[in-house]
Structures are given as C-alpha cells and as structure tokens.
Amino acid sequence: MEFSGYFPIWQKLTAAQQSAVSEALIHRTVKKGTVLHNGSMDCTGLFLVKSGQLRAYILSEEGREVTVYRLFDRDLCLFSASCMMRSIQFEVTIQAEKDTELWVIPVEVYRQLMEESAPVANYTNEIMATRFSEVMWRIEQILWKSMDKRVAAFLLEEAVIEGTNQLKITHEAIANHLGTHREVVTRMLRYFQNEGMVRLTRGVVEIADEEKLEELQNG
Amino acid sequence: MEFSGYFPIWQKLTAAQQSAVSEALIHRTVKKGTVLHNGSMDCTGLFLVKSGQLRAYILSEEGREVTVYRLFDRDLCLFSASCMMRSIQFEVTIQAEKDTELWVIPVEVYRQLMEESAPVANYTNEIMATRFSEVMWRIEQILWKSMDKRVAAFLLEEAVIEGTNQLKITHEAIANHLGTHREVVTRMLRYFQNEGMVRLTRGVVEIADEEKLEELQNG
Q1: Fold of A145-218
Q2: How far is CA B51 from CA A119, A121, B7, in A?
Q3: Which of B87, B92, B130 faces A129 most closely, judged by CB atoms?
Q4: Tell me: the pLDDT tens digits for B190-213?
Q5: From chain B, which residues contact A within 8 Å (Cβ)?
Q6: ipTM topping 0.90
C-alpha cells in the first residue's frame, strides 16, 4: 500500500495538494537504533510510519533517557518538525526501536497544507492532542507510580486465583477492586499492552508477559 | 476592551462567525479559589482570560496537586473543553488563582469554527503546542531537578509573575504546586534562609538574594 493508504485525510486534499505531497515525499528505511531526529537537527520533517516502531525520548544533562511516547504503523510524528510551529519550544529525540520504514514529509509542504486546509489543521490538532495525552499520562505515572504496581499485582493475583492467564474481567470491575475509576484502569491496561505485558480483547485481559508484569509489581 | 480585542484571530472570522461567537459568549467573574472545571464536569467550554490568573493542575488518588500550567490575560484554555477533540484523553482541574474575569466560549460554537476555518484550527494548534511545551518543561523539572532547584525555580518564577520579591504564599501552597509535602518545602526554605537566599516571616517568603537563588536553580 502506498502513502495515500496511510494518510487518513488523503481524500480531503485537492488534486494539486495530493501531487505536491507525492512529489515531495521521501521514503526511508532505517535500522533499529537509528536516531532519526534530535534537538540539534533542525526540522527534519514529519515522519509517517509505514511499519516498525519509533520512540520519542527526552535526555537529561546527565544523559538519562525517558521515553515520552511511541509511534507505530500509520502514526505521524510532528515533533521532528518542531520549526513548523513557533509555539513548539521543546526538543525530543526520535529513535527507531525496530527496523522501520517511513515517509518523510518536508516541513514547508506540510505547513502550506495546514495553512490552506482546515481538515489538515484539525487532523494535526488531533495528533497533537494524542501526544499531549500520552505525555500527561507519563507525568501522572512519574508522579503517582503506585497505581501501575497495584494493577499489575491485581492481574497476577487474579491469574493465580483463576488458574489461567486469560482473565475474563471488565475494566470497570478492576477499577472497583482497586477503588479507582474505569478510565484510569483502561489507560493503564493500554499502557501495559503497548509494553507487551498484556493483550486486550473484548472482555478479556490476557497476561502476555508474566515476568515483566512481576518486575513492574516489585520494581 | 471587548472580546474582539482579546481574541487574536477575530479579524479572520467571517461576519457570520463573529456574530455566532458574540451571541454565544458567556461573561463570568469568579473569586480567587473557584474551581472552574474538573474531570467530572463535562465540557465546560473554552475559557478566554480577560484579567486575573488561572492554574491547571492534576490530582492524584490521594489528593495531591501538581500545577501543570498557568493562564494569564488573553490566554485561551482548551482543556476545559476536552470533549471538543476525541484525542484529548486526560483531565485537568482549572482553578482561579486570583479574582478572574473571563469569557466562556461554548464547545459547539468553537468546534464549528475550527471545522470551517483553517486560521482558527491553526491558532488552536499553536495554543496546544504552547501548553505542550509547558508540560514538557514541567516533566523535565520533575525528572531532573532535585527539589532544591525546583523550589528555587518556583520562587523565582513566582516573583516574576507577582512583580515582587515579597511572596505571600504558604509552604503548603508551594508544596501543592510541586507535588510534594509541606515538611519538605519548610525544610528547604529554612535551608535557603540559613544560606541567606530568602527571609521567612509569617505568610511571606521574601527573596533576599536573587542571584544566589538563580545560581542554585541553574547549578
């Protein structure tokens, strides 16, 4: 499948906009570990992930890394193009966590699209809101670490009780057990899923990596 | 001055859009301490600050507060209208930190504007990027600043906001801003006092040596 199949608002572009994007696109294949963008590289362009996995992290003076979000198939990375908006006043490093195939959209082409097209600007808003939510979630985790341990402990206990790693339980029920809100549990389980610790299907939480979950619980 | 003077892209709205906004606007005056929005109030609307000061904070299960950003004259608050975008998946509490005059723009009116108008959508993008930058800055502070630096940074920031080195603030309030305990702040301030950086009197923290405090913050 080509770019048009990965860019959800392709059909909302005019023919002229579509061909401007198509002509400007750069296709890249990078090995796991490659740093695609950092603060000292100005405006690398926007990345659209075709396959693979990227992570965005911030780096302290002392060189400590903290992952702030991850990007999977079809995700668009705005912050590798921080010059696109004057209000983006921070820098992240973007690294390939797996071998990754992606498209680079040059900043000038995308900026032009945003200025002309309300659908593109609103799509960009939704992406920024998604990343914002991830970052807020990360802050909450940093500040209030205990809930992830409590959810991990609950799942492990439940697996022992039920004698299976396939737990038939709703997020609501887990929340009731822990005295918290369903939304908190849902976000936590999605985070666990992104980390490969659980698999979520309708009405079922499957423990996918017991060891990792135990490490989290005890860490 | 009226709303049109506070909303920077007013001139980019059509006459029809301008009158739709004017008719829907709600003018509010609230006392210091008023909670204008929290997670359990759905979609309060967007706030545009005319005068005063708001702060956005997140709240833990245990009731600890951490300030994530502040809003001053002419600032627009998007996250009191989190239903506006489906990708906003977090909740903040918005409280008046001073007596505040503001306008509330109903969500449906603003959403309509964003959908129709690329300038409004791009303006919204810039605001979100600004808040995002503030939150990233806050994460970096949390992760990489030892508490002494965080307290120093807070006092210096507060002095700029208030336009005075005589800060009328309790240790409890500082602790809430930084997501820590009052005792920690009190010990830190006593240490600062011993070092000649501040002077403590009842209800007041006076910055006595700004330069030394700045050195600590940056050191």
Answers
A1: Arc Repressor Mutant, subunit A (1.10.10)
A2: 33, 29, 13
A3: B87
A4: 889 988 999 999 889 999 999 999
A5: 58, 60-62, 64, 66, 68, 85-90, 92, 114-118, 120-122, 124-133, 135-140, 142-144, 179
A6: no
